[in-house]
Amino acid sequence: MQRDEKRDEIWLISPYHSGSHKAWAEGYVRATQHHVRVISMAGRFWKWRMQGGAIELAAQARRLLRAGHVPDAVLATDMLNLATWLGLLRRELPPSTPVALYMHENQLTYPWRPGESPDLTYAMINWLSQLAADVVVFNSEFHRRAWFEELPRLLKHYPDYNHVRSVEGVRSRSRVLPVGIDLPPLSPRAQADEAPLILWNQRWEYDKRPDRFFDLLYRLHADGYTFRLAVAGENFRNAPQEFEEAHVRLAEHIVHWGFVTDKRGYLDLLQQANLVISTTDHEFFGISVLEAVAAGAFPLLPNRLSYPELIPEALHPACLYADDADLYTKTAQRLTQPRPAPPSLVEHVRERFGWGTVAARYDEMFDGLVMRDS
Question: ∠ at Cα 169 (58, 82), nearest 5°?
Answer without folding.
Answer: 10
